[in-house]
Design brief:
This is Polyamine-transporting ATPase 13A3. Its EC number is 7.6.2.16. Keywords: ATP-binding, Endosome, Magnesium, Membrane, Metal-binding, Nucleotide-binding, Phosphoprotein, Translocase, Transmembrane, Transmembrane helix. It is found in: Early endosome membrane; Late endosome membrane; Recycling endosome membrane. With about 1250 residues, the chain is α+β, with helices and mostly antiparallel strands. Helices cover about 40% and strands about 15% of the residues. The protein has 41 helices and 41 strands. The protein is globular and about 120 Å long.
């Protein structure tokens, strides 16, 4: 068959998909129909489970232009398959953002002019067919490829009703609809799960074998399980539906032209509609860009920030004051988020003009909105990649292979004994239900459920319980700084004003008497986004602290005051105390106005909000009585300095800035500019901010103190001792982040910081990395700069310094870089990136998408990555990490798998400990269920050899009383109290686990075969017949008569030959073997509490042992008849008792000595407290590996040349042997020249030169 060209949608994005087109084939459909009939419908189930097979077996592959069905596959590591149907849509046009060809959509001519649009829907997103590209493309609105001028010129007047109806054909209803599936649909979907299909098959088979009791109980349990699952799933859908539908349909006013408005339902909104934001506020039903006015918005639902945000109108792409056009910007949701109202956010207040309304143009609707994408991520979560689940499937396939061997033996043995064909088939299939435990998925889930409940008690909530197991393997955790490692609030630490290009004296508080109206003070009082809500100042904590330090007063006009003027009334700030007029004289002021007003007031005329991309904000102000306006700029010092005149910046600016950032202070720069008279109020409303934010005068620096949270240092120390790497990922400045990293212990005192600065290609020169060594390491005496720091920091630093001084090893190297450098390295230095990931400790000035890219890069080198943030700008990284932990309790936490109510990082070790406990529990349960299947499998095969089998009630007792009780109680062990260095294995295919399973299988098989053969050698043994009793001499004549009567009455029931000496012997031995392996596999330290703390499990084991041994030593005829046992001599019962004891002793001994290194581990970890961990490893990863290797053989294996499995460990091994790493101080590395794929040599090394 000719292969068609591969096509992709969402190319290069996280949700990239590969497409194949298919057309139904009549011949293939007929063949599949015959296959379904011949397989009794099993082929149909197989095609339902495997979308790829369902299309390839029933259709032929065709180009996408002819396809009626599409096969989709994700291009990530999971390779998930989907099948979708191609639909058609008749529209009077082909451009989704265009206009209908005719206004009368119902006319006869219109019917002939309709275009046929092919599309498909996948996970609530529409993809339209593009004849030009011969591919499907995602349906976009105004968020991509739209110029700002087009928004104002083409989309600012609103849409006609005809255009609105036309666009609705493409975009559908503006509704984030979470459909709650019906009970019948959920039931069918749940029952068609392979697990329940196997259950149904097993129940039917057991019923045919006359195991009615057992089949009925298992069927009842399956029904209860299905009902519970349905209730849980439906409840989750209802909760999500109610959360989304609460604001799904509202009434809103839209513009239909210059002066015409119409009130419609929000479900009728389409991209391009212009909606009116009422003065009382509203919940946004879509994503919309502000065209006029100002809004105060609560975005906690999306960002996790409880602080209201001010939204201003989009900058109008008009010409500047000199009528020189500038390069036009494209609208971008991220870049213009301060001008965009997002769906689901609450507009609290509005500021508007007289006669005008606050207008916003609809950018996106439905599931394309930010809220819709968030809901989609909940409805369609990304699969969790974890080796445990892959290995579990492989292990089950091995059990199926074992079952195949048993089936073959059963068939051969039955044929040799002349059994009926029906009996042969039933017995052979029965082997499958024994070798593959149907209850395995439910059993493995128990540990996760218990861990989830324990986490809830600690204030940690999970929306993805399956990730709890993954948390047990975390070996690297990324931390945000502000609000995560440090306190949310900031304190004003000091100020440095600039006069005549010189820094003045350090001020720790504002001194009003010096210059009460100085531009520095006015800048602090005006350059912010504060507003009053219910009479209380609200806004960014940094802005709030800065404004409060000035002791000025902020006044906002009311709606009535605004309506009295022809322009919006500005926010006004003024000193809290009136100043003498002689202190207020200024050459630009109007003396008459000052005499009239007798006060000093500054109005904020225009505001350009803070942008994380630009790292700055600015305002334009006008002082009462002055004729010209002023601009004030605030932002990151490196950004502000580039926008200032060089002759206004002090010569020692960089030295002073570095001295404060190295102390961990957050430094903000202020700048000022007196605007020319050509800048009028009307021009300012639509001007581009770049025209204002230039040629500024540097005013000085403001230092804010962000204290570490008390729990940060001890938690990071705990993670470090557990050999878990910690990395800081922050949006703050480089030197501040490095200082905080030293202070909290991420970088030891003896560690050397290498600042990595990369420059992108320019002027024909390749990308270049400059390596700068930051030798100014902090010492304990420097901590005095930070007030009231925790004593633990001082003690730890002193201790580490002393250890470093006595350590002969070389210092460790920690690389630090900013977001721009990271992007350059990601694009131009792919060979260096893995090395830097191993050595990088601080990532500063990281944008939200760069944080996500960093997490993905770390995962590619086989790290299990955790991410802990406050939920504001970390949502992408939180979702992408193996374990994302949000410290925000607000609705943005739905984007994170885990949410902690405790607002500090103490939740991280708790989550890792519980993850390790849950992971070890999963291993224990899996091994126990595997041994349960093998033990019962061996018992049945031995009984098949004599044409016997186990009884119905024997199966019932073993599976319910023993297995289910043990499974659901052995998972109750809580997590161990300490976070130890060792990590549990992540794979079932590991030497330790496989050795444990194999030894226990051989032990159980040996004892069963031995006792099966041994019973036949006894003097009293003979083939059991109804009515015989070999233990007659041990009981009274009356009892013997009663037993004889009972045996005679049950003679007709011995169709399956259940009652015999072999069955009775194997029943007692196997029952005790189940309890033995449960005890053997129930691990305690170092990941779980000891077994003796699990009272319920121990109680169940003791009760079961007591009952079985009582039945063994003191037989009760009624119980023996119930379990279909026969009476055996007392001597044989004593022999079985000794065999049971020997089996138990050997199992525990072999598990402890050969399989479990826990005792040796505990001696190494707990016999002496090794707190003097070596801190002088060359790189962060090697530092942890050396700690691990100090009491293991891992490091020795490296020395011998053994290759580790994890990529990051192989890279660390290479770094140890690389003489050119780390790079030399003041050297540079250039990217290799771009070569074609045919001429590019393997392993092309970047060129390193001295600066």
């Amino acid at each position: 068959m000719e292969r068609t060209e591969r096509k992709y949608v969402n190319r290069g994005e996280e949700d990239e998909l590969e497409l194949w087109g298919f057309l139904p084939s009549t011949c293939k459909l007929l063949l599949v129909f015959l296959g379904v009939l011949c397989s009794g419908g099993f082929l149909l189930l197989l095609l339902f489970w495997l979308p790829e097979w369902s299309l390839r077996l029933t259709c032929r592959e065709v180009p996408l232009s002819q396809a009626r069905f599409l096969l989709l596959r994700t291009t990530d590591e999971f390779g998930t398959w989907f099948r979708v149907r191609v639909l058609t849509l008749l529209t009077p046009g082909s451009n989704p953002l265009g206009h209908p060809r005719k206004e009368d959509l119902a006319s006869k001519l219109m019917q002939d002019m309709k275009s046929e649009i092919r599309y498909f829907r996948h996970q609530n997103v529409r993809y339209l067919w593009s004849p030009k590209e011969q591919n499907f493309t995602q349906l976009c609105a105004l968020e991509k490829g739209t110029h700002l001028s087009d928004i104002f010129n083409q989309h600012s007047e609103g849409l006609s009703s005809a255009t609105q109806e036309y666009r609705k054909l493409f975009y559908g209803a503006n509704q984030i609809e979470v459909k709650v599936p019906s009970v019948v649909k959920l039931l069918v979907k749940e029952v068609l799960n392979p697990f329940y299909i196997f259950q149904i098959f097993s129940v039917i088979l057991w019923s045919l074998n006359d195991y009615y009791y057992y089949a009925s109980v298992i069927l009842f349990m399956s029904v209860v399980s299905v009902c519970t699952s349905l209730f849980t799933i439906r409840k989750q859908f209802i909760l999500l539906h109610d959360m989304v539908a609460a604001h799904n349909v509202v009434r809103c006013t839209v513009h239909r032209g210059h002066n015409e408005t119409e009130e419609i339902f929000s479900t009728d909104l389409v991209p391009g509609d212009v909606i009116v934001i009422p003065a009382s506020g509203m919940v946004m039903p879509c994503d919309a860009a502000l065209l006029s006015g100002t809004c105060i918005v609560n975005e906690s639902m999306l960002t996790g920030e409880s602080v209201p945000v001010m939204k201003t109108q989009l900058p109008h792409p008009s010409c500047n004051a000199t009528e020189t056009p500038y390069q036009e910007d494209m609208y971008d949701v991220e870049q213009h988020k301060r001008h965009t109202l997002f769906c689901g956010t609450q507009v609290i207040q509005t500021r508007f003009y007289i006669g005008e309304s606050i207008r916003a143009v609809v950018i996106r609707t439905g599931f394309n909105t930010t809220k819709g994408q968030l809901v989609n991520s909940i409805l369609f979560p990304k699969p969790t990649d974890f080796r445990l689940y892959r290995d579990a499937i492989r292990f089950l396939l091995c059990l199926v292979g074992v079952a195949g061997i048993g089936m073959l033996y059963s068939i051969i043995n039955s044929v040799q004994h002349g059994e009926l064909v029906s009996e042969i088939i039933l017995d052979a299939l029965d082997i499958v239900t024994i070798a593959v435990p149907p209850a395995l998925p439910a059993a493995m889930t128990a540990g996760i459920v218990y861990a989830q409940n324990r986490l809830k008690k600690k204030g940690i909530y999970s929306i993805s319980p399956q990730r709890i197991n993954v948390c047990g393997q975390l070996n690297l955790v990324c931390f945000d700084k502000t609000g995560t490692l440090t306190e949310d609030g900031l304190d004003l630490w000091g100020m440095l004003r600039v006069e005549d290009r010189r820094f003045g004296t350090l001020e720790h508080q504002v001194i009003m008497e010096v210059q009460p109206w100085s531009h520095f003070i006015v800048g602090m009082a005006t350059c912010h986004s504060l507003t009053k809500i219910d009479g209380k100042l609200s806004g960014d904590p940094l802005d709030l602290k800065m404004f409060e330090a000035t002791s000025w007063i902020l006044e906002e006009p009311s709606a009535e005051e605004t309506a009295l003027h022809d322009q919006i009334m500005p926010t006004v700030v003024r000193p809290s105390q009136s100043m003498p007029l002689e202190m207020q004289l200024n050459p630009d002021e109007d003396p008459d106005m000052k005499m009239i007003m007798n006060q000093y007031e500054v109005g904020i005329v225009a505001q350009f909000p803070f942008s994380s991309v630009l790292q700055r904000m600015s305002v334009v102000t006008k002082t009462l009585g002055e004729k010209r306006m002023h601009a004030y700029l605030k932002g990151a010092p490196e950004t502000v300095a580039k926008l200032c005149k060089e002759d206004s910046i002090p010569e020692n600016y960089l030295e002073v800035l570095d001295s404060y950032t190295q102390q961990g202070l957050r430094v903000i720069a202020l700048a000022h500019r007196k605007l020319e008279q050509k800048f009028t109020w009307h021009k300012l409303q639509n001007i581009n901010r770049d025209l204002i934010e230039c040629n500024m005068e540097f005013l000085g620096l403001i230092m804010m103190q962000n204290k570490l949270k008390p729990q940060s240092v001890p938690v990071l120390e705990q993670l470090r001792r557990a050999c878990i790497r910690t990395v800081m990922v922050t949006g703050d400045s480089m030197l501040t982040a490095v200082s905080v990293a030293r202070e909290c212990g991420m970088i030891p005192p003896s560690g050397r910081v290498i600042v990595t600065k990369a420059l992108p290609p320019h002027d024909g020169q390749p990308a270049t990395i400059n390596w700068i060594y930051n030798d100014d390491t902090s010492h304990p005496e420097d901590i005095n700069i930070m007030t009231e720091q925790d004593e633990l920091i001082k003690k730890r630093k002193l201790k580490d310094l002393e250890a470093a001084e006595h350590s002969p090893a070389e210092p460790s190297y920690h690389f630090a870089m900013n977001g721009k450098t990271f992007s350059v390295i990601l694009d131009h230095f792919p060979d260096l990136l893995p090395k830097l990931l191993l050595c990088g400790t601080v990532y500063a000035r990281m944008a939200p998408d760069q944080k996500t890219q960093l997490v993905e890069a770390l995962q590619k080198v086989d790290y299990y990555v955790g991410m802990c943030g406050d939920g504001a700008n970390d949502c992408g990284a939180l979702k992408r990490a193996h374990a994302g932990i949000s410290l925000s309790e607000l609705e943005a936490s739905v984007a994170s798998p885990f949410t902690s109510k405790t607002p500090d990082i103490s939740c991280v070790p708790d989550l890792i400990r519980e993850g390790r406990a849950a992971l070890v529990t999963s291993f224990c349960v899996f091994k126990f269920m595997a041994l349960y299947s093998i033990i019962q499998y061996l018992t049945v095969l031995l009984l098949y050899s004599i044409l016997s089998n186990m009884g119905d009630r024997q199966y019932l007792f073993i599976d319910l009383a023993i297995i289910m009780t043990a499974v659901f109680t052995m998972s109750l062990n809580p997590a161990w109290t300490e976070l130890v260095r060792q990590r549990p294995p992540s794979s079932l295919i590991s030497t330790q686990l496989l050795l444990s399973v194999v030894i226990q299988i051989l032990l159980c098989m040996g004892f069963q075969v031995w006792v099966f053969l041994l019973v036949k050698t006894q003097q009293w043994y003979s083939i059991w017949q109804p009515g015989m009793n070999v233990c007659r001499e041990n009981i009274s004549e009356d009892m013997w008569a009663w037993n004889t009567t009972l045996h005679n009455t049950t003679e007709e029931e011995e169709e399956h030959n259940v009652k015999n000496f072999e069955n009775t012997t194997l029943f007692f031995i196997s029952c005790c073997q189940y309890l033995t392996v449960a005890l053997t596999f129930s691990k305690g330290k170092p990941f779980r509490q000891p077994i003796y703390t699990n009272y319920l499990f121990l109680g169940c084991i003791v009760v079961m042992y007591t009952f079985i041994l009582f039945l063994l030593l003191y037989p009760i005829t009624a119980l023996e008849e119930f379990f279909e046992l026969v009476c055996v001599p007392f001597e044989w019962r004593i022999t079985m008792l000794f065999i049971i004891a020997a089996n138990l002793a050997l199992a525990l001994l072999l598990e402890s000595c050969l399989c479990n290194s826990g005792q040796l581990w505990l001696r190494l970890v707990y016999s002496e407290k090794r707190e003097d961990i070596r801190v002088a490893a060359p790189y962060p990863q090697l530092e942890l590996d050396e700690v691990s290797a100090s009491y293991g053989r891992r490091f020795c294996c490296w020395r011998k040349g053994n290759t580790p499995k994890a990529k990051y460990k192989r890279l660390a091994q290479e770094l140890m042997l690389d003489p050119d790493w780390p790079p030399r101080p003041k050297s540079s590395t250039k990217a290799p020249p771009p070569l074609s794929a045919s001429t590019l040599p393997q392993g092309w090394p970047p060129e390193t030169t001295n600066l």
